[in-house]
């Protein structure tokens, strides 16, 4: 009963917070359509959480939905995790401002999926149980490796949470007429309710619903926009060239990725970073077997690839429909309201072709997108604390399921408070660099250790720790010294590290240190770890690893 009362209290708290904007705060005009649809979504997802709470009886249910999600359902959920508000808002605006350059940027987000499909999906499902640390620590030292994996996961989760929380705050501030701080608190409260009570079951179904809404909303917007051009891509391209200040330059690569080193570093981070994002990796443990894991990636790839094409259409259509309005686009300068480094071009396009009602729907979908991603991130971070640190490192496998779930809920509350505080702290900062930082850290820290643990017999605990921490520290240092932070945020005259993205240097360095330290490790433990690879390989091929991981 207390669960239901708390859910009801959270529901009542949301509108209370919505009306509690501080006196004197500058407000935008209230969009009643957006607010109405927002509350419809909140009511629906809270009903899902209530249902999921009744289905969640064990740690397996809480962390992985009991492994009962089908490949198609999980593919939609993965797509929901990956198609964040930055995709709809930020990438469409990037195409709006830069043309073809913006589309090249989106491709880097997409091409990481073949790595997941062919190299990782099957082994992730066969060897893991709850988190990717299950795979990394399979034959290595449980205590030290899980501690490192949890630390790396939490770093990535916190960086990504900042991006999502600031994006949510600015979006709701601009579209719903709420104060920024109020919006951040609403997101934090709803996230806590979804994760604490519903766990992975609720998070998965919220992701599925949000993915469907985003696909339907984006496709509808693209069709409405294309109707303005007689559904002719040739007409769209010709009018976009005429309308854009740079003319034909929007149809080819330009200055955005002109520096080959910066472009290569960005691409490496985006391509390999997806294979190290803990909330994405966690999704492969929600399906019953490796076959369904492969199906998950197949379906997710289709949904995400289609949506990226929709985003490109939206960007080019906005050049003509939105860009010709002096209110938004003057002399080649984008005037749309900024959201964490992106902007609101897609929303202006929705209002132009669909009116306030469609703008309200798309606004609610964008908010739902952020909320769903934040919930997935919180669950991944909480599982790293409760499963990897508490149950395995501190309790050495002696914790009961009830104790572990209790710690998970406390950890979720802690992460929720951290997310709210970080969202408030970074309100006025340009946080665009955090997206690259998140993917760069994941590509330099989690990915090298994970892929080597699955495929290289010579990996040792010392090598994994040395390489992982080298990747983490080098990625953080390079980003701090880059123009995005050293100049734009800290106000220095010139950056020490001249590139915006670290992966080109930090990821190879992580691999190099991992290999060298592992080869130089001649300890007795290292010999046992190498011998254990054969057993791990057999279990990775036969699907016995998940069962073994529970007793390892």
From TrEMBL:
Signal peptide: none annotated. GO terms for cellular component: plasma membrane. It is a multi-pass membrane protein. Its main location: membrane. InterPro entries: Na/Glc_symporter_sf (IPR038377), Na/solute_symporter (IPR001734), Na/solute_symporter_CS (IPR018212), Sodium:Solute_Symporter (IPR050277). Pfam families: SSF. One of its GO terms (molecular function) is acetate transmembrane transporter activity. This is Cation/acetate symporter ActP.
């Amino acid at each position: 009963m207390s669960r239901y009362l708390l859910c009801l209290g959270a529901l009542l708290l949301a509108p209370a917070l919505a009306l509690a904007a501080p006196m004197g705060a500058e407000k935008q005009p209230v969009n009643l359509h957006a607010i109405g649809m927002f509350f419809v979504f909140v009511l629906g997802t809270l009903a899902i959480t209530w249902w999921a709470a009744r289905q969640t009886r064990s740690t397996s249910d809480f962390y992985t939905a009991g492994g009962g999600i089908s490949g198609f359902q999980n593919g939609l959920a993965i797509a929901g995790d990956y198609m964040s508000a930055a995709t709809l808002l930020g990438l469409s605006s990037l195409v709006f401002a830069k043309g073809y350059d913006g589309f090249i940027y989106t491709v880097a987000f997409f091409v990481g999926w073949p790595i997941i499909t062919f190299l990782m999906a099957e082994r992730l499902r066969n060897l893991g149980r709850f988190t990717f640390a299950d795979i990394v620590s399979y034959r290595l030292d449980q205590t030290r490796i899980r501690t490192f994996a949890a630390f790396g996961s939490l770093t990535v989760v916190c960086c990504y949470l900042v991006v999502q929380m600031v994006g949510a705050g600015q979006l709701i501030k601009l579209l719903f007429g709420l104060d920024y701080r109020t919006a951040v608190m609403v997101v934090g409260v709803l996230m806590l309710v979804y994760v604490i009570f519903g766990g992975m079951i609720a998070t998965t179904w919220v992701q599925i619903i949000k993915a469907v809404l985003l696909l339907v909303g984006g496709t509808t917007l693209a069709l409405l926009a294309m109707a303005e051009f007689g559904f002719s891509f040739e007409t769209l391209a010709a009018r976009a060239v005429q309308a854009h200040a740079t003319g034909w330059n929007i149809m080819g690569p330009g200055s955005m990725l002109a520096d080959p080193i910066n472009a290569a570093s960005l691409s490496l981070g985006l391509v390999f970073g997806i294979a190290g994002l803990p909330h994405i990796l966690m999704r492969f443990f929600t399906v019953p077997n490796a076959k369904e894991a492969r199906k998950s990636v197949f379906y997710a790839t289709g949904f995400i690839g289609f949506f990226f094409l929709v985003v490109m259409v939206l960007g080019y259509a906005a050049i003509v429909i939105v860009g010709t309005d002096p209110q938004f686009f003057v002399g080649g300068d984008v005037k749309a309201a900024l959201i964490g480094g992106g902007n609101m071009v897609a929303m202006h396009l929705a209002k132009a072709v669909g009116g306030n009602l469609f703008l309200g729907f798309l606004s609610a979908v964008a908010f739902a997108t952020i909320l769903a991603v934040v919930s997935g991130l919180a669950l991944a971070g909480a599982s790293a604390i409760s499963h990897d640190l508490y149950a395995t490192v501190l309790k050495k496998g002696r914790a009961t399921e009830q104790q572990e779930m209790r710690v998970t809920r406390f950890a979720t509350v802690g992460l929720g408070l951290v997310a709210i505080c970080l969202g408030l702290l970074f309100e006025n900062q340009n946080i665009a660099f955090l997206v690259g930082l998140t993917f760069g850290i994941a590509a330099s820290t989690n990915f090298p250790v994970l892929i080597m643990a699955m495929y290289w017999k010579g990996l040792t605990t010392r090598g994994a720790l040395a390489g992982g921490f080298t990747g983490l520290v080098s990625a953080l240092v390079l980003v701090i010294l880059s123009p995005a932070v050293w100049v734009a945020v800290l106000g220095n005259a010139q950056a020490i590290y001249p590139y915006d993205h670290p992966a080109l240097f930090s990821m190879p360095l992580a691999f190099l240190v991992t290999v060298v330290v592992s080869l130089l490790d001649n300890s007795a433990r290292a010999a046992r770890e190498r011998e254990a690879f054969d057993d791990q390989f057999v279990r990775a091929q036969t699907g016995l690893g998940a069962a073994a991981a529970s007793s390892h």
